[in-house]
UniProtKB/TrEMBL annotation:
Keywords associated with the record: Lyase, Pyridoxal phosphate
UniProt domain Tryptophan synthase beta chain-like PALP: residue ranges: 15-298
Keyword Lyase in annotation: yes
Protein name, per record: Threonine/serine dehydratase
Cofactors: pyridoxal 5'-phosphate
InterPro entries linked to this entry: Ser/Thr_Dehydratase, TrpB-like_PALP, TrpB-like_PALP_sf
Length: 312
Protein backbone atom coordinates (compact mmCIF):
# COMPACT_ATOMS: atom_id res chain seq x y z
CA UNK A 1 0.00 0.00 0.00
CA UNK A 2 1.23 3.47 -0.85
CA UNK A 3 -0.22 6.11 1.46
CA UNK A 4 -1.75 9.26 0.01
CA UNK A 5 -3.11 12.60 1.16
CA UNK A 6 -6.32 10.97 2.43
CA UNK A 7 -4.34 8.69 4.72
CA UNK A 8 -2.43 11.64 6.10
CA UNK A 9 -5.69 13.51 6.77
CA UNK A 10 -7.08 10.42 8.48
CA UNK A 11 -3.90 10.18 10.55
CA UNK A 12 -4.39 13.73 11.67
CA UNK A 13 -7.89 12.92 12.91
CA UNK A 14 -6.47 10.00 14.87
CA UNK A 15 -3.53 11.74 16.47
CA UNK A 16 -5.28 15.04 17.16
CA UNK A 17 -6.84 13.18 20.10
CA UNK A 18 -3.36 12.67 21.53
CA UNK A 19 -1.14 15.54 20.38
CA UNK A 20 -1.74 19.27 19.95
CA UNK A 21 -0.18 20.91 16.85
CA UNK A 22 3.43 21.95 17.48
CA UNK A 23 4.40 25.63 17.31
CA UNK A 24 6.21 27.20 14.36
CA UNK A 25 8.19 30.38 15.05
CA UNK A 26 10.58 32.71 13.28
CA UNK A 27 13.68 34.34 14.81
CA UNK A 28 15.30 37.55 13.50
CA UNK A 29 18.84 36.33 14.09
CA UNK A 30 18.17 33.12 12.20
CA UNK A 31 16.72 35.08 9.31
CA UNK A 32 19.80 37.27 9.26
CA UNK A 33 22.17 34.28 9.26
CA UNK A 34 20.22 32.53 6.51
CA UNK A 35 19.38 35.51 4.32
CA UNK A 36 15.88 34.07 4.19
CA UNK A 37 12.63 34.16 6.17
CA UNK A 38 13.04 30.98 8.19
CA UNK A 39 10.16 29.30 10.00
CA UNK A 40 11.18 26.66 12.52
CA UNK A 41 8.63 23.90 13.02
CA UNK A 42 9.20 22.73 16.56
CA UNK A 43 8.87 18.96 16.59
CA UNK A 44 11.46 19.00 19.37
CA UNK A 45 8.45 20.00 21.51
CA UNK A 46 6.72 16.63 21.04
CA UNK A 47 6.28 14.40 24.10
CA UNK A 48 9.18 12.11 23.09
CA UNK A 49 11.16 15.01 21.66
CA UNK A 50 10.76 14.11 17.99
CA UNK A 51 8.26 14.09 15.12
CA UNK A 52 8.26 10.31 14.85
CA UNK A 53 5.71 10.04 17.66
CA UNK A 54 3.09 11.02 15.08
CA UNK A 55 3.86 7.85 13.14
CA UNK A 56 3.93 5.59 16.17
CA UNK A 57 0.54 6.78 17.40
CA UNK A 58 -0.99 6.39 13.94
CA UNK A 59 0.32 2.84 13.65
CA UNK A 60 -0.84 1.71 17.09
CA UNK A 61 -4.23 3.40 16.71
CA UNK A 62 -4.86 1.32 13.59
CA UNK A 63 -3.88 -2.06 15.07
CA UNK A 64 -6.46 -4.60 16.25
CA UNK A 65 -6.62 -5.77 19.85
CA UNK A 66 -5.03 -9.08 18.87
CA UNK A 67 -2.19 -7.34 17.06
CA UNK A 68 -1.52 -5.10 20.04
CA UNK A 69 -1.46 -8.15 22.28
CA UNK A 70 1.15 -9.84 20.06
CA UNK A 71 3.12 -6.60 20.21
CA UNK A 72 5.69 -5.05 17.91
CA UNK A 73 9.42 -5.37 17.41
CA UNK A 74 11.69 -2.92 15.64
CA UNK A 75 15.25 -1.63 15.34
CA UNK A 76 16.41 1.92 15.94
CA UNK A 77 19.10 4.20 17.25
CA UNK A 78 16.64 6.20 19.33
CA UNK A 79 13.70 8.26 18.22
CA UNK A 80 11.78 5.66 16.27
CA UNK A 81 12.23 3.43 19.31
CA UNK A 82 10.92 6.05 21.71
CA UNK A 83 8.02 6.81 19.41
CA UNK A 84 6.94 3.20 19.23
CA UNK A 85 7.48 2.72 22.95
CA UNK A 86 5.38 5.79 23.73
CA UNK A 87 2.56 4.77 21.41
CA UNK A 88 2.64 1.22 22.77
CA UNK A 89 2.30 2.65 26.25
CA UNK A 90 -0.69 4.76 25.19
CA UNK A 91 -2.39 1.77 23.51
CA UNK A 92 -1.27 -0.83 26.06
CA UNK A 93 0.72 -2.96 23.62
CA UNK A 94 3.99 -4.85 23.98
CA UNK A 95 7.07 -3.39 22.28
CA UNK A 96 10.64 -4.64 21.85
CA UNK A 97 13.42 -2.56 20.32
CA UNK A 98 16.82 -3.76 19.16
CA UNK A 99 19.48 -1.05 19.26
CA UNK A 100 23.12 -1.29 18.19
CA UNK A 101 25.31 -2.26 21.16
CA UNK A 102 27.02 1.16 21.18
CA UNK A 103 23.77 3.09 21.62
CA UNK A 104 24.04 5.45 24.61
CA UNK A 105 22.51 4.07 27.79
CA UNK A 106 20.19 7.07 28.01
CA UNK A 107 18.48 6.13 24.74
CA UNK A 108 17.73 2.64 26.01
CA UNK A 109 16.54 4.07 29.33
CA UNK A 110 14.15 6.43 27.51
CA UNK A 111 12.54 3.45 25.76
CA UNK A 112 12.32 1.45 28.99
CA UNK A 113 10.79 4.48 30.68
CA UNK A 114 7.68 3.90 28.56
CA UNK A 115 7.55 0.25 29.55
CA UNK A 116 9.08 -1.21 26.37
CA UNK A 117 12.03 -3.60 26.18
CA UNK A 118 15.29 -2.22 24.81
CA UNK A 119 17.93 -4.74 23.77
CA UNK A 120 21.33 -3.36 22.77
CA UNK A 121 22.89 -5.95 20.50
CA UNK A 122 24.91 -6.09 17.30
CA UNK A 123 27.67 -3.80 16.10
CA UNK A 124 25.55 -1.79 13.67
CA UNK A 125 22.00 -0.74 12.86
CA UNK A 126 21.96 -3.43 10.19
CA UNK A 127 22.86 -6.09 12.77
CA UNK A 128 20.14 -4.77 15.10
CA UNK A 129 17.67 -5.10 12.21
CA UNK A 130 18.64 -8.74 11.78
CA UNK A 131 18.03 -9.42 15.49
CA UNK A 132 14.62 -7.74 15.22
CA UNK A 133 13.68 -9.95 12.25
CA UNK A 134 14.64 -13.10 14.12
CA UNK A 135 12.71 -11.95 17.19
CA UNK A 136 9.59 -11.38 15.06
CA UNK A 137 9.81 -14.86 13.57
CA UNK A 138 10.33 -16.44 16.96
CA UNK A 139 7.59 -14.60 18.88
CA UNK A 140 4.94 -13.55 16.37
CA UNK A 141 5.41 -9.88 17.22
CA UNK A 142 4.81 -7.58 14.27
CA UNK A 143 8.07 -6.41 12.69
CA UNK A 144 7.95 -2.64 12.16
CA UNK A 145 10.32 -1.25 9.56
CA UNK A 146 11.14 2.38 10.38
CA UNK A 147 11.16 3.20 6.67
CA UNK A 148 8.75 0.91 4.86
CA UNK A 149 5.65 1.11 7.06
CA UNK A 150 2.79 3.06 5.41
CA UNK A 151 1.12 3.98 8.73
CA UNK A 152 4.31 5.62 9.99
CA UNK A 153 4.65 7.60 6.80
CA UNK A 154 1.02 8.75 6.95
CA UNK A 155 1.43 9.76 10.58
CA UNK A 156 4.55 11.85 10.10
CA UNK A 157 2.88 13.54 7.14
CA UNK A 158 0.67 15.41 9.59
CA UNK A 159 3.61 17.74 10.35
CA UNK A 160 3.34 19.08 6.82
CA UNK A 161 -0.43 19.56 6.95
CA UNK A 162 0.17 21.75 9.99
CA UNK A 163 2.90 23.73 8.23
CA UNK A 164 1.00 24.53 5.04
CA UNK A 165 -2.24 25.25 6.83
CA UNK A 166 -0.61 27.58 9.36
CA UNK A 167 1.48 29.35 6.72
CA UNK A 168 0.13 29.05 3.17
CA UNK A 169 2.77 31.60 2.14
CA UNK A 170 5.69 29.19 2.68
CA UNK A 171 7.78 28.89 -0.51
CA UNK A 172 9.79 25.78 0.23
CA UNK A 173 10.00 23.11 2.94
CA UNK A 174 13.33 21.61 4.00
CA UNK A 175 13.31 18.18 5.63
CA UNK A 176 16.13 16.11 7.16
CA UNK A 177 16.24 12.57 5.77
CA UNK A 178 17.18 9.25 7.30
CA UNK A 179 14.91 6.53 5.95
CA UNK A 180 12.94 9.19 4.08
CA UNK A 181 9.45 8.79 5.55
CA UNK A 182 9.27 12.44 6.60
CA UNK A 183 10.42 13.83 3.28
CA UNK A 184 8.20 11.43 1.31
CA UNK A 185 5.17 12.40 3.35
CA UNK A 186 6.04 16.07 2.91
CA UNK A 187 6.01 15.57 -0.87
CA UNK A 188 2.46 14.18 -0.67
CA UNK A 189 1.16 17.12 1.32
CA UNK A 190 3.21 20.17 0.54
CA UNK A 191 1.99 21.57 -2.80
CA UNK A 192 5.32 23.42 -3.02
CA UNK A 193 8.94 22.29 -3.38
CA UNK A 194 10.29 19.93 -0.71
CA UNK A 195 14.07 19.65 -0.36
CA UNK A 196 15.73 16.80 1.54
CA UNK A 197 18.98 17.00 3.53
CA UNK A 198 21.21 14.12 4.57
CA UNK A 199 24.68 13.90 6.08
CA UNK A 200 27.51 13.42 3.59
CA UNK A 201 28.81 10.73 5.97
CA UNK A 202 25.62 8.64 5.52
CA UNK A 203 24.31 9.26 2.05
CA UNK A 204 22.35 6.12 1.20
CA UNK A 205 19.00 7.89 0.90
CA UNK A 206 20.50 10.72 -1.12
CA UNK A 207 22.34 8.38 -3.45
CA UNK A 208 19.31 6.10 -3.84
CA UNK A 209 17.23 9.09 -4.88
CA UNK A 210 19.87 10.32 -7.35
CA UNK A 211 20.36 6.83 -8.79
CA UNK A 212 16.64 6.03 -9.03
CA UNK A 213 17.29 2.69 -7.32
CA UNK A 214 17.97 1.46 -3.79
CA UNK A 215 21.66 1.53 -2.90
CA UNK A 216 23.68 0.80 0.23
CA UNK A 217 26.38 3.16 1.46
CA UNK A 218 28.75 3.46 4.43
CA UNK A 219 26.89 4.75 7.47
CA UNK A 220 29.34 6.95 9.35
CA UNK A 221 27.49 10.04 10.46
CA UNK A 222 27.42 10.87 14.17
CA UNK A 223 23.93 12.32 13.59
CA UNK A 224 21.66 9.51 14.77
CA UNK A 225 18.44 10.54 13.02
CA UNK A 226 20.14 10.70 9.62
CA UNK A 227 22.02 7.43 10.00
CA UNK A 228 21.04 4.76 7.54
CA UNK A 229 23.12 2.43 5.42
CA UNK A 230 20.47 1.79 2.80
CA UNK A 231 17.61 3.35 0.90
CA UNK A 232 14.06 2.29 1.84
CA UNK A 233 11.68 1.22 -0.90
CA UNK A 234 8.44 2.98 0.08
CA UNK A 235 9.76 6.50 0.75
CA UNK A 236 12.13 6.35 -2.21
CA UNK A 237 9.28 5.42 -4.54
CA UNK A 238 7.27 8.40 -3.34
CA UNK A 239 10.20 10.83 -3.43
CA UNK A 240 11.45 9.72 -6.84
CA UNK A 241 9.45 12.11 -9.02
CA UNK A 242 8.24 14.47 -6.31
CA UNK A 243 11.22 15.63 -4.26
CA UNK A 244 12.54 18.92 -5.68
CA UNK A 245 16.17 18.51 -4.58
CA UNK A 246 18.37 16.63 -2.14
CA UNK A 247 21.34 18.27 -0.37
CA UNK A 248 24.26 16.79 1.51
CA UNK A 249 25.88 18.59 4.44
CA UNK A 250 28.90 17.66 6.54
CA UNK A 251 28.40 16.73 10.18
CA UNK A 252 30.43 19.83 11.17
CA UNK A 253 27.94 22.10 9.43
CA UNK A 254 25.15 20.38 11.30
CA UNK A 255 26.92 21.10 14.58
CA UNK A 256 27.18 24.77 13.60
CA UNK A 257 23.47 24.83 12.86
CA UNK A 258 22.78 23.30 16.28
CA UNK A 259 24.78 26.12 17.88
CA UNK A 260 22.84 28.70 15.91
CA UNK A 261 19.51 27.19 16.96
CA UNK A 262 20.68 27.26 20.58
CA UNK A 263 21.81 30.90 20.53
CA UNK A 264 19.43 32.51 18.03
CA UNK A 265 16.30 30.43 18.61
CA UNK A 266 16.60 29.19 22.21
CA UNK A 267 16.14 25.71 20.79
CA UNK A 268 17.90 22.54 21.81
CA UNK A 269 18.12 20.44 18.66
CA UNK A 270 19.79 17.10 18.18
CA UNK A 271 21.89 16.83 15.02
CA UNK A 272 19.06 15.66 12.79
CA UNK A 273 16.86 18.44 14.15
CA UNK A 274 19.36 21.02 12.91
CA UNK A 275 20.13 19.39 9.56
CA UNK A 276 17.42 21.21 7.61
CA UNK A 277 18.77 24.54 8.83
CA UNK A 278 22.31 23.40 7.97
CA UNK A 279 21.09 22.70 4.44
CA UNK A 280 19.61 26.18 4.16
CA UNK A 281 22.79 27.82 5.48
CA UNK A 282 24.92 25.78 3.05
CA UNK A 283 23.08 26.93 -0.09
CA UNK A 284 22.25 30.66 -0.02
CA UNK A 285 21.89 30.46 -3.80
CA UNK A 286 18.83 28.23 -3.40
CA UNK A 287 17.14 29.94 -0.48
CA UNK A 288 18.01 33.64 -0.54
CA UNK A 289 14.96 35.84 -0.01
CA UNK A 290 12.56 32.88 0.24
CA UNK A 291 10.16 31.93 2.98
CA UNK A 292 11.56 28.61 4.14
CA UNK A 293 10.05 26.16 6.62
CA UNK A 294 12.74 24.07 8.31
CA UNK A 295 11.61 21.17 10.42
CA UNK A 296 13.42 20.88 13.73
CA UNK A 297 12.59 17.20 13.81
CA UNK A 298 13.99 16.40 17.24
CA UNK A 299 15.70 17.58 20.40
CA UNK A 300 17.10 14.36 21.84
CA UNK A 301 20.75 15.37 21.95
CA UNK A 302 22.84 12.88 23.90
CA UNK A 303 25.67 13.89 26.23
CA UNK A 304 28.28 13.86 23.45
CA UNK A 305 26.12 16.06 21.27
CA UNK A 306 25.50 18.48 24.11
CA UNK A 307 29.23 18.75 24.76
CA UNK A 308 29.92 19.86 21.17
CA UNK A 309 27.73 22.94 21.66
CA UNK A 310 30.56 24.50 23.66
CA UNK A 311 33.31 24.18 21.07
CA UNK A 312 33.95 26.12 17.90
C1 LIG B 1 14.17 9.75 12.19
C2 LIG B 1 14.58 11.15 12.25
C3 LIG B 1 14.83 11.87 11.07
C4 LIG B 1 14.75 11.24 9.71
O1 LIG B 1 13.43 10.89 9.40
P1 LIG B 1 13.11 9.78 8.31
O2 LIG B 1 11.64 9.78 8.24
O3 LIG B 1 13.69 8.49 8.81
O4 LIG B 1 13.78 10.19 7.06
C5 LIG B 1 15.15 13.20 11.20
N1 LIG B 1 15.24 13.80 12.39
C6 LIG B 1 15.02 13.13 13.55
C7 LIG B 1 15.13 13.87 14.83
C8 LIG B 1 14.67 11.78 13.51
O5 LIG B 1 14.45 11.14 14.65
Amino acid sequence: MEPGLDDIRAARDLISRHLPPTPMWSYPLLDRAAGAAVLVKHENAQPVGAFKVRGGLTLLAGMTGAERKAGTVTWSTGNHAQSLAYASHVFDAGCTVFMPAGTPEGKAAAVEGWGARAIRRGDSLEAAEQHAREHAERTGARLISPGDTPELLAGVGTVYLEIVEARPDVDVIVVPVGSGTGAAAACLVAGRPVIGVQSSASRAAHDSWRAGELVTRPNRTTVAGLATGRGFELPQRIMRDRLADFLLVDDDRITEARRLLATAAHTLAEGAGAAALAGVLSRPDLFHGKRVAVVCTGGNADADELATLRRG
